[in-house]
Amino acid sequence: MADHQEASVTLPSDPASVPAARRYVSDVLAEWGLRSGTDTADAVRLIVSELATNAVQHTLGLSPTFTVDLRLERDERLRIGVTDSHPRRPRRLPATAQQDSGRGMAIVRWLAAERGGRLSVTPTGEGGKTVWIALPWASPVQT
């Protein structure tokens, strides 16, 4: 495997783009050797789903698109980034047991931490932000 692999897709900030982002990530990870249906693949799909949903719902119409970046660095670390053009950093919203929303960032942080990863947010040069998840990458066993 190469020292560094990258893949990226830009999608409209529309709810229909969330499943498209999940499919794209699943396809790329499969090309890189991570089979669908594994715990790691499922966790990454959920992370992308939550971050893409946030990019669509919480940018208040100020981000017409969002971009999903995948980077596999030296077969050791997978970085997943979701970029939008809204400057506000993601924040945990209050959520009660009866609410259906407000838990996305808590879920993302938990999934990342459970796999030995971390979450970070970086501003873009255009005034937006990228929410990054970095996860250890164990070379999948080829069968």
UniProtKB/TrEMBL annotation:
Q: Which Gene3D superfamilies does this chain map to?
A: Histidine kinase-like ATPase, C-terminal domain
Q: Which SUPFAM superfamilies match?
A: ATPase domain of HSP90 chaperone/DNA topoisomerase II/histidine kinase
Tell me which UniProt keywords the record has, alphabetically: ATP-binding, Kinase, Nucleotide-binding, Serine/threonine-protein kinase, Transferase
Q: Which domain of life is it from?
A: Bacteria
UniProt entry tagged with the keyword Nucleotide-binding: yes
**Stretches assigned to the Histidine kinase/HSP90-like ATPase domain:** 11-133
Cite the PANTHER family for this sequence.
Answer: ANTI-SIGMA-F FACTOR RSBW, ANTI-SIGMA-F FACTOR RSBW-RELATED
Please give the name of this protein. Answer: ATP-binding protein
